[in-house]
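Deliverable D5.2: sample structural annotation.
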Amino acid sequence: MQRFLIRLALQNVFKRRLRAFLTIGGVAMSTTVMVLLFGLSSGLENMVTAQIDKTAQRNVITVGSKNTKVLKINDKAVTRFQSISGVTSVDKSISLSGQVTYNGISLTIPVYGVTSGYFQAAPITKVAGEVEGKLSGESRAIVLSSSALKAFNLDNSVVGKKVNLALTINQDNDSDQTEFTRQVTARDFVVAGVIDKGTSLVGYMPAEFLIKQGVDNYSEAVVRVAYPEKVPVIRESIEQLGYQTTNVQDSINQVERIFKIISSILIVFAIITTLITVFGTVNTITIELVEATKQIGFLRIFGIKSSDVGRLFMIQSIILAVSGVIIGVVFGVIAGILTNGAIKAAAAQGPTLSDGSIYAYQIPVWQIIIMVMLAVILGWAIGLLPAKRAVTINPLEALKS
């Protein structure tokens, strides 16, 4: 009997093909959009989080001062940071303005004096030359960003060559300095390496060289922690000293909050589209009930139970809902795959944001499972009223209609 009812339900659903296709198409269209949007939301969140993880480490805390005139980051402060349980190392960074000159062409860029372990705590992408180990001691080495080289119209062949560097030190860097700024005599530095910093024009040099020039205050400290789970406790200890701290988890939490809002908006949109498709399906089933009045009379006369007649309309409703969702899922996944292909093709034309293993669209498996389950439940619920009406139809009156 069950097989007969399913076959008859399929025949009734597709008897009016245009109406069936319009109803299923409406469900499929809304499902396609939802599968695509949920997949993009999930994929973009994972992609952004992965990119943040690549540019910073979870066991690294960046320490700064809200007011450098009142609370400075100096050797005394660094010693206090190092004394906190769980801290493995503290590296320093000094922010200055520098004028780089090469072959008579000058360019003013931000220059950072960093200690030897700075790039281990703040990972960078090396383009050419050597970076780690070169910016130590009082070596006259400098690392430039690839964008800085482009400003000079140079390529990576500049590695190993000399550039002239003049620095400007302000009062925040030197506690004994009376004037607002002072100039450090220009000196020759050897380009040790080239790094990728996006569009930033920037240079890095040994902090020890600047300390010899009288610099005793640092712009920031980079604290490395033995275990990432200790980061919150150590941050609290540093903040109690009056300093402000940041960690990659802050950015990840912010990204997650943004995408939670996006997901909430998508859920509201899904509810609205579901209501619209429900009304469409109810309308279709109601019309089919009116058209099948005589068929109901024949079925009842031939001995089919009234409960089976009601089940027939519930099956028809479920077929409409589930067919639309399945078709929508297929088209949504295909659209997502095509979106990934388009993004990869666009990325190939310029700087890439990922290593190729991260995709902007990821199949929203759980959302798809929920959609299919909802389709069955809604299909059953939509078919309840027409099923009850079908059960109450008098078979003799139905044959006369």
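Annotation notes: The two ends are 26 Å apart (CA to CA). Residues 60 and 121 are 6 Å apart (CA to CA).
The annotation will be released with the project's public dataset once the embargo ends.
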